[in-house]
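User: Please predict structures.

Assistant: First:
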Amino acid sequence: MKGHDRMRQSPQSSPSWLSTLSTMIKSSGTQELDVFCRRVLLVARTKWIMLAMLGVYGLCAAVSYAMSSIGFCFTTQQTTFLVLTALAVVICNLLTCRFCGTASQRTSLIHIQIGLDLLFVTILIHFTGGVASWFWPVYLLVTLEAAFLFEDRRDVWLIGTLGAALYGALLIAEAFHLLSEVVMPFVGQSLHGAFLFQALMWLWVAGMNATVAIIAAYLMDTIRRDHRKLKESEEALFGFISTASDLIFCCDAAGTILYANQVCRDRLRFDLGEYGRHSLCELVVAPDRDRFNNWFRRVQAESHTGHIEVRFTGDGVEHVDVEMSLTSCAREDQAAVVWGVCHDITERKQAQQELYKLAHHDILTGLPNRVLLQDRLLQARALAQRMSSRFALLFLDLDRFKIINDTLGHSVGDELLRLVAGRLKRTLRETDTIARIGGDEFIILLVNMHEHNEVAVLAEKILKSLSLPFSLRDHELFITTSIGICMYPDNEQDSEVMMKKADIAMYHAKALGRNNFQFYSDDMDQNASRRFVISNSLRRGLENNEFTLHYQPKVDISTNRIVAMEALIRWNHPELGLLSPVEFIQLAEENGLIMQLGEWVLREACRQTMLWISAGLDSMRIAVNLSGYQLQHKDLLTTVRTVLAETGMNPDNLEFEITESVIMQNPDFAVSILSEISDLGIHISIDDFGTGYSSLAHLKRFAVNTLKIDKSFVRDVDMNATDAAIASAIIAMGSSLKLNVIAEGVETQAQFDFLKKNKCNQVQGFLFSKPLPAKDVLALVRENRGGEN
C-alpha cells in the first residue's frame, strides 16, 4: 500500500496554469475590472522604472556638467521647477497605485493621468533644450502607454494627437518668446531661430507620434482580439468542464484533488473550499482501492490514457459507479497533474443488476429461478465432491393451491406465494437455496448434508412452518405441502435427473395423503410410469363407464345397527385391474376431470340409494366424499340440485364428507358454501378431523353435522395415551356442540370398546365390514337389522 500512502501525502502546490482555471469561472465583469487594474499597475511600475532611469541620467548629466568646463547650466529657478515637476509625476504615480480600483472603474481618470504625463514630458523637453531636446521620444512611450491601457483605438489616436499638439504648442511658445529658451550645451543657438528646423522637428515628432499611435493601436487591438478569442475559447472549455454532465476533476501526483466540476462536487458532496483536502483514492470504495491505486500509478508512469470502472463513495453519498478515464500531463516547468473524466454509469449498473436479477430470479417472489438454481447445483456438486459430503434436493408443491387461485383470484394466490417464499427463507439456513421454478412449485437445495435424518428434520420443519395460518386481505388461509427428496450422490448425480426424481418422490408424497415428505427410491419409477398410464386413460375410463362404487357401512355404536353407507369409488382399469381412489383422484384434480368424476359418483350414489330405499331400507343415508376442487367450483350447487331432482333423492338422506384440511384452506369461503349446502337439507361431515388445525371458533361458524375422527388417532387409541386423549377430546367437543361423532378405521374390539366407553356415536371400519359392491350391501344390511324387509 505504498502507493496508497503516497496518495495520502499533503498536497503539492498546484501549477500556475491550473490556478488560472479558478479565475476563468469568475464573473466576466469582475474579471474585466481586475484585468484593467493589473494593466494600470503594470504601467505604474513601468513609470517607476522610467522615472528611475531619467533620474539617474539627469543626476549623471548634472554632475558631469558641474565637473566640466561648461559648468552646471540650470538656474536655481529652473532646477526647482524640474524637481517639483518630478515630484508631481511621482505623486501621480503613487496615487495611481493606491487607487487602482477607482481608476479602473473611472477611465476618465486614466485619460487625465495620461494627459498629465504628456504635459510632464513637454515640460521636460522644454527644460532640456526645447526644439533641440533629446527627450522627445518619451512622447512615444506615453502613446504606447495609451495603446496598452485603452481598448478603443480612437483614444490612442487622441493621445498621439495631443502629444503632437503639446510639442507644437511648445515650439510656437518658444519661437514667439512666450517661454524663454533654455540654453543647453552642445546645441547651437541658431537652431532656436531656424523656422525650417522647427517645422521639420515638429513634423518628425508629430509623424512619429502618429505612426506609433496607429501601429500600437493596431498591434494592441490585434493582440487583444487574439487574447479575447483565446479567453473565449478557454472560458468555453472551462464552462463546458464546469457544466458537463460527466464528473471531471484534476489532481496532483499524490492524488489530491485540485479541481472538480460542479457535477463532481454535487455527486461526491464536497465544496470548492475543500480543494487540497480530498484524496481521490479515499473517495474510491475500499474493495476497489488497491486496483485503482495500481492503475493510477501506471497512468503516471507510462503517461498514457487509461480506462477503469470504479465505485465512488463519501459522507452521506450513495455509491456512484463510474467509468473513469485518466490522463497524465505536465509542462517542462510545472509539476505533473492527472486529469480525470468519469462517466456516471450508476443507472447502467443498476439496470445490469436488474437484468441479472430478472434473468436469475423469480419476478414474483424474488427467489432464485431455474437458471440460478442450476448454477447453485453445479457449485453444490463440486463442493460435495471436494468435501466428500452430500446435498439434498427437495421438490415442494403446495397442496390444492389451484383452489385458492380459482376462488380468491390470482392476486391473492400471488400474495400467498410471496408469503410462502418469505416463510421458507426464515425457516431454512442462509446457506440453503430456495428457488421457485413455476406455479406453486419450489425447489430447495440443502448443502453439506451427512445423513438422511438431517434432511428429514429440515423437511419436517418446513411442513410445520407452512401449516401455520397465513393472514392476507382479511382471509385466514391454511395450506399444506408435499415434499419429494432426492439425495446426492445416493440417488443420482446429474442435476436434471435429480429434479425429476425429487418430483417423482413429491407425487408419491401426494399419493400418500399429502402434507408429508418422501425420499426417492427406485421403485417410485415404476409408480411414475403407472401414474402416467392412469393419467392418460382417465377420460377414456369415464367415457367407457369403467368406474364403480363400493360401500362401507357406518354403525351406531350403541345399537350395532348400520345407519349409513359411505360411497367409495373404484376403477376397473382394463390394464391395471381394480384401482383405489388414492391412485387417480389427485390425477383427476390435475387433469380437470374431477368435476365430471364427482358428478358421476354423486349421481350413482343417489341412484343406488333410491334402489335400496325401494327395497325397504328407507332409513339409509349415503355419504359422498367431496374434494376441495368440487367444493370451490362455481357449478357445485347447480350440479347437486340437478342430481337430486333427476334421482328423486331426499336431501336428508345425503351426506357430504369434506376433509378438514380442505375446509381450513379457506375458512371464510367454507363458511359460505357449507351454509348453502346445509340450506338444501344435506348433511355435512368433516372428514379426517384432527389433522387440519381447525379450532372450536371455526367449528362454531361451520354448518356441519358430523365430526369424523381420523383413523390415525384411532389406530393406537387403546395403547397410546396421546391418541386416546385426542380422541376423547374430539368426542367431548362434538357432544358439547351437539354434533354427531364417528370414528373411522376401527379394526379391533379394543378400539371399539374404548370408543363406546367414551360415548362415540358411530364407528366405521374393517371390524364390521370392508367396502362392498352394491350387490352385496342389501344382504349385509338385512342381516344386521335382523332380516327386515
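Second:
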Amino acid sequence: MKEKKPSKETYTKRHLEEEFKESFLDYSMSVIVSRALPDVRDGLKPVHRRILAAMNDLGLHHNHGFRKSAKVTGEVTGNYHPHGTQAVYQSLARLAQDFSLRYPLVIGQGNFGSIDGDPPAAERYTEVKLSAVADDILRDLKKNTVPFVPNYDGTLSEPAVLPSLIPNLLVNGSTGIAVGMTTEVPPHNMREILNGLEYLIQNPDCTSVDLMSIIHGPDFPTGGIINGREAIYRYFTTGRGKLRVRARTEIEAPEGERSRIIISEIPYMVNKAKLIKHMAKLVNSKHITGISDIRDESDREGIRIIIEVKRHENPNTILYRLFKHTQLETTFGVIMLALVDMVPRLLNMKQALHLFLAHRRDVVTRRTQFDLDKAEKKAHILEGLKIAVLNIDAVIKIIKASRTVKDADSSLQQHFALTPVQAKAILEMRLQRLTGLEMDKILSDLKDTLAEIARLRAILQSREKIDNIIIQEFQSLKDAYGDDRRTSILDSQDAICSEDLVKEEEVAVFLTNKGYVKRTSLCLYKSQGRAGTGRKGLLTRDDDFVEKMYVANTLDYFLVTTNTGKLYWLKAYQVPEGGMHAGGRAIINLIDIEPTEVIKTVVPVREFSADRYLVFATRRGVVKKTRLSAFSHPSSRGIIAIHLAEGDALIASRISSGEDEIMLITRKGKSIRFSEKDIRPMGRNTRGVRGIRLRPGDEVVGMALVSRISGILTVTERGRGKKTKAKRHRLQKRGGLGIKHMILDEKTGCIVGAHAVGRDDELILCTHAGKVIRVQASEISYTSRNAHGVIVQQLDASDRVVSFVVLESEL
C-alpha cells in the first residue's frame, strides 16, 4: 500500500520582534482585564465578582443559612472561573477577613486566617454566606441592570460587572499587580464616601480638594494613625501618594513602677507575629536597648502588645526607635488605578466618585426601564381584562360558541380588537375573577399600574429624579452601615525623629580610629582625683583605639568635618547609646561619607546664629572663619566647609563670637596668640589664611579661643598636663613663628592638644587603650611656659593619651 505524503503546511514570515511585542501585549491585556485590576464600577476583580455571583446563584444571602466553602469554590470553578479551587478559596477567605476588608463581603464560620499570617482552614471545614454589604452589591442583578457575557465554555452567562449599590472600590480598597502596572487603593469610611457622593451630585463642579473636607482620608480596618495630610492631598488630586501609617500606642507609667508601651492597633497589612518577632530580634541584637520584655496579649477583643521598658529608660526614645526600625510605622503607596471601559486609568478622588455615580445612574436607568417594561406589559394585560370584565356576557357567549380554544382566541381578538396577549389572558382568567370584588380589584390594579407607569416614565425623563433616587439609596446605606472612623489622621506630619521623644542630657561621644562611634551618659563618669587610673569608656577591638571624645547635649548637632574638608551633620541622639563597656557602631552607617574620607573634627552646635563663626585650623597652620549660619541647612551628602591644600588636614574647629583671640599650639611645643579680627570672614569653599609659620617636622595639634584672663590647659602624650595664663603668651600678628609653649622631653612626650579652661571646669582624658579619666581642672596648677607640668593620668608604658576634652562649668 502506497504511503500518503504529509500535507504541506503554510508558514507566515514575521519579524520575531513584532511577534514578541504583539503576544506580550495580548498577554498583558489579558492579565490586566481578566485578573489583576478592579473595575471602577463595582471595585471587584473577576474572581471576586464570580464568587459573589456563584453565591447569589446558590441563594447564600445574609439572612439565609451557611453552606460549605467547598460547595462555593466548586460552583465558581465549575461555572465561571477556570482555575484551581485553592486559588478561588484564598480569594473567598480574604473576603471574609475583617482585618483585610473594611466592610467584609462574606460572613464566615470557622478559621479564615488571622492577622498573624495564619492560613485559613481547609475549605471542607469552613462555611460561608454573603454579607448584607455583598447583597447590596448584587441588588437588582436580575433586572437587566448590567450586561452579561458568556462564561468560559459558553454554556452560561455571567455579569460583566455587578450593579453595586455600594462604592466598593473606595470603601474596601483593592490591591493588584498587573504587567507593568499596579494598583493600591486604600479603604475608606462608608459614611464619608457616601456623603462625598451626595456632595458631588449637588455640586458637580467641585474639586478633589473640596471633597477632602468631607472624605478625610483612608480608614483602614486595623485602625492606626495616618501621619500627615500631605499624602492624602496628593492622591486626592493626582491619584498617587505615599501615606505614613503608624501604630496606635500608649505609654503607661504607673508611679513607682516601670513604664510600658501598649500597642492597640497596628498599620494595615502588617503581620503581627512577624512584627513582634522583628522587635525581639532588634532587642536581642542590642540594636534597640532599654526593653526588658515583649508580650502579645491580643484576643478576640483586639490587639494588645505589651513592651516592658527597663527602669530609668525613656519610653518615648524607645518608641521612636521602634517606629524607625520596625513596621510600627509603614508606608502605604496609594495608586488609584482601575479599569474604566476595560482600559486601566489612574484616577483622582473626584474622577473615581464621578465614574461610580455614572454607573449608579446607568443602573437606576436600566432598572427603571426594566420596571417600566414590566409595568407596561402588566397594564396591557389589565386593559384586556378590563374589556372582558365590562363585556363579560358577550365574552362568555363568544367562548361558549367557539369550538376550540384557538377559535375562541381568534373571535375575541376580532370582536373586541384585542391583542393575542390580551386574548390569551382572558381565556386563562379564572371564573372567581368574575365576582364583583375581583372585578373592582382588576380596575383598581389597572389604575395603580398606569400611575406607576407615569412615575417610571417621569424618572426616565428627569436626571434630577434619578439623582434623588440615588441619594435616597445612599441615605439608606448610611443608616445600615455608617460607622465611625477607625483610623486617625494627624493634620501635619509628625516626623518619627521628633526631638520631643529624645531625653535631653549631657553625653560623652567616643570616636575610634576605625570610625566607630558611641555615646554614653556623662553621669556615668564620676570625678576622680588627679593621678588616678581612670575607667573604661569604650570597648575597642584589638586593632582599634579611641581617637576622639566629645561632650554634647543629646539635642545638639555634630558638625562632622573630614580630611577632605567636607562637613556633615549628625544629631547627638542619633549616635547609638551604649554602656561603658559596649562597643560602638560604624559612623559610616550614620552619615553618608565616602570610604576614602576620614573624620578629623567634630563640633557640637545647638543654634546656627548669624553673629557667631566656625573657626578652622589645619595641621599646616592655616586658619579660617565662616559664619555659623552658612552651615544651617543640613544635607545628607555633606558640603564643602574648607578648601584644603594637598597634604593638609583639619585639626580643630571652634565656635567663636567674632571678638575672641586665637591661640595655636604645635606638637613640638610652639604657640602663637593673635586676634580673631586678623581673619576676615570667608565663604565655605575657601582655603583660609596662614595662622602660624611652622618649622620642618612640626604641625599644629591644638587651637584655643582665649582672652587675657583665660587659662590654657596643655596635655601631653605621657599623661602630663599644665595650665598657663594666656597673658603669658604675648599677642602677636598671625603668621609668625610663635614662642616657646612647653618644655618637652621623654617623660612628657609630644603635645596632644590645648584648650582654654575656667576655674571650675573639668578635664576628661582618653587613652589609646580606651581608658578614660575625669578630673577637676583646678587640681592642675598654673605654671610657667617652660614647666613640664604634672601627672594627670598614670599610663602603662605602651599606652598614651590620644584625646582630651574640657567640660565647661556652665554645662
